[in-house]
Amino acid sequence: MPILNEFSFGSCDCKNTIYVREWLPDASPVGVVQICHGIAEHITRYDKFAQFLASKGFVVAGEDHLGHGKSAASPDDLGFFGEHGGWELVVGDMRKLYERLREQYYSLPIFIFGHSMGSFLTRTYIIRYHDGPDGVILSGTGQQSGLLLSAGLSAANAVINRHGASYKSQRLNDLAFLGYNSHYKPNRTSFDWLTRDDAVVDDYINDPLCGFIPSAGVFRDMFTGIKYISNKRNLERLNKDLPIFLISGDDDPVGEYGKGVLRAYNGFLKAGLTDVTLKLYHGGRHELISEYNKDEVYSDVLRWLQSKCEAKNKERAIERAEAK
User: Fold this and answer.
1) Contact of 97 with 7, CB cutoff 8 Å
2) What is the model's pLDDT at position 301?
3) How large is the average pLDDT for residues 147-153?
């Protein structure tokens, strides 16, 4: 039975405390998975997925980002990274957790699982840092057009100039997310696009730490971050040997029903990465690990992680032999 551990550390903003949830296997660990969650949610929603991985021998840990979950100082702070440079602050907090995990589990392969906004943060992270992880899984990611991102950024900046970065605009939120639900008719809720599992959608709606309107500053930061990871020159900076596994539902609006995910996949290949895998799940919506076919997704993720652990362990064994 996996063991739950909770701890916290000081955020890079030098103001807030970042909450971390860690799931430990009850046997010797074989690897580490750091989870990076999406917008308007929190790390506890990954409990079942993390328990599954921990039951297979993986240490799993993830933080509530700034302005999310238990890292938000108050309900008013939900959906707010900071006045300036929020994206960099969150990536910095990811780095802090990664360094702690690497120090504690230095002999084990470490992976990052990033979902939705977390996938964009993870893609920023791997451009910035080349000393790990040993592989990344990108769930519910996409590749938006430059024109769309510029339009969104202009709208966010207009709201910020008028009301400030912490202001929460219903109109800006609708521009970003309202179109996602229009694909599913008739709509039962405003969040049908998340998953086909009604119980999961209802839990999300009833969770006071989910579904809130992000601040204009978060939209500004996110659009800026996505532009950064879409830049070809930045993609050229990626570690060419880094294994990447992209998973998405072919009915996920964030990935443009597979088209945006395919663009991201091809972008990695064009940048010269040599180990990139893509799997689209038929009928799957945005949250694959909460979908009807989650058992299949779990198995595929586990199989990929195990294969990369095996490859990394062989590589280290060769290095040790050559060093003698």
Assistant:
1) no
2) 98
3) 91
